[in-house]
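Anyone? Bumping this.
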Amino acid sequence: GEDVEQSLFLSVREGDSSVINCTYTDSSSTYLYWYKQEPGAGLQLLTYIFSNMDMKQDQRLTVLLNKKDKHLSLRIADTQTGDSAIYFCAESILGQNFVFGPGTRLSVLP
Amino acid sequence: DAGVIQSPRHEVTEMGQEVTLRCKPISGHNSLFWYRQTMMRGLELLIYFNNNVPIDDSGMPEDRFSAKMPNASFSTLKIQPSEPRDSAVYFCASSFIGGGAEETQYFGPGTRLLVL
């Protein structure tokens, strides 16, 4: 079945860039997503990318998609303490078969 | 829109009791998902509905769990009888399947369930 993998932890210093990586197995994915979960809260959609795109930029966020390697990354520029959270990568096929990764816990050190 | 609404936000109950979790999806969405999140198992899809019909309930742990969606604006997840291992955060999410980026899932704030 489909599988989405992420590293579980990442620590960066405030002001540095963070890069969170994700790999997936289903080549027929139509959309790939990044969600953010702050402590005690639900998952909040950060951004998404259609599978025929290579890159998407939205303010401090840059998403890169390497479809050949089935690799997705999220870069957060100028990381702030408010970016500390768990980041989930997810894939879907036409909105169904939604599969989430285990989440990467980002810690931003002052 | 108020987003996905879940109630209660917190529930503490004793083993053996019935627990009912409620969800109101975003108006206009045609799909609803129930997830469970624990430290050990991460985020697990329990069941999802499309146009009020259960499509995939393979994630429902066992017969003690049941879910209903009587109409497009309301769903329940029931656990009867509850057990301590059911303690988790239960999320409801909704989406519109059938067009572009609207397929994105939007999550509610979750219900934190503790079974003693």
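Late reply, but here is one note on the structure posted above: The interface with chain A takes residues 4, 31, 33, 42-43, 45, 48, 50, 55, 91, 93, 95-98, 101, 103-110 of chain B (CB under 8 Å).
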